[in-house]
Amino acid sequence: MILLPLNIPEINVLKMSQIELEIRAIYRLITFSRKHLADDLLDTFLSHTQDLKELLSIKNAQMEAQDEDEAKEYVLNLNETLRFVTQEINKNITFSTQVQLFQLFRLISPESHREHPNKFRGTHVQIGSYLCPEPSKLNSLVADLFYRMLQIKHPILRAIYFHHELIRIHPFTDGNGRTTRIAKNWMLMYNLYPPIFIKDDEEKYEYIQTLSASFSQLEKSPNHWNEHTINFFKQEINRIYRNTNMIYNKVHHIGHLKSNLS
Hints:
Pfam families: Fic (PF02661). The protein is mainly alpha-helical. The protein has 10 helices and 2 strands.
């Protein structure tokens, strides 16, 4: 396996600009509103971000659990992991090291971590028709991924790149998807973007099919971005835009309600 080249194509440039504009608009409402207390708007923003976290828990449970008991256990693990991530962000710490990767793996997938604590998988794994890298190559691939991640300036592209490539490396026997998505959302939330979640079964199918097609094409042309890889980046950016827009509309609406009451 060869990691994706760092010459990331210009993807959804307009949508990326819209995300930045709405993020700035949210913080203008929070910081400069003369009609309402900034704390009120800040509380609204934080509570809505928590709503997204709860929705993230529900949707990820649908993807990772086979029955109700497994879903409940998964949501508990995910909420504990999110609390850890939030505490780290409050300490001005972003996701950037392999140590943090193992921390997330232990929290979000404790049963898998107990089987091989602080180690990558020692067995071969296949995702559909895609054969993941052999165990002997995992350490160097993950180390290279963290090095490359630091070369990507834009936080959104950095987070999506990491997501795509860590899933392709598949360093753990189990729990790769949930660990990767938490790591990605840690990077996004640290940089004040909302987390990304899968909203329904249709989007879940699209997510899996796009990744699978991207991996297959990269096996044939490993040094070239292909349409499926680009589509995955576009879909993730669209999800960030959807969540950012949701937050802005909520904050703006509450501001109007308070204004009418005063």
